[in-house]
């Protein structure tokens, strides 16, 4: 057991046995002493996902990704030993591994993890990973990541959204461990050494829902707005100002028989829209509740210093850091953002 950054006692829990079954391109067998053995049917990379061990085929590029190879789109993993040059795209059904740098204007899309040994550069660079993203540093690029983001040195003017945890480590160097400029939002919290720029340029760090949840919530809000617009137009057509069953009944009775069928059709359409609205509103409430719980559960820890010009967000709430601030943990409780000094 121990204590969390809120000062609350946390109990230790025993681990649970993990059951692994055979997945794609793998067969299971029996070994000595009742052990389960797994045998790959192809040459490739081993992954364990959702309780299954699977092997993905690998598309390898020996050196830089240039016009000699062109854009890459494969079902399995992609391994590039060199740099992905400006303007190229790589799409993989598994992981993407880059031994060098990702230059400006590159698009990387992976249903697994994205691992870059050096830098991810450029305001026109787009990174999308269902799994995690790892890089030495990221400068100006945009990334949407389903799981964790692990950075060896720094994030500079980067736009990062992730469904897991963001870690910016101090691996040595002038900017090491720093988030400076840009926006970093993580559902699972953030760990860094420094946040903000000495120049005072704005830096936004925060906790929000996962990228999938926030996109879904926005889509549902748009749907609600569209349905509400249709309801208002129907009410105007019917000549009533609000949804009132008695008023609609009186309207139908007061309508001449020759026109009653069209009024009844409008009323039925209104009932259909109201049922649709109730369904969309319930789904939006569920997704928003998931986002709210994520915001309450996650913590931002800055272990060395926060510079003025930093904005700290939790969901829709934010606080401005206007002066240099010592090591701090930020968390959300009782509808407010709280700061606690780190010893």
UniProtKB/TrEMBL annotation:
<dbReference type="InterPro" id="IPR046865">
    <property type="entry name" value="FapA_b_solenoid"/>
</dbReference>
<protein>
    <recommendedName>
        <fullName>DUF342 domain-containing protein</fullName>
    </recommendedName>
</protein>
<dbReference type="Pfam" id="PF03961">
    <property type="entry name" value="FapA"/>
</dbReference>
<dbReference type="InterPro" id="IPR005646">
    <property type="entry name" value="FapA"/>
</dbReference>
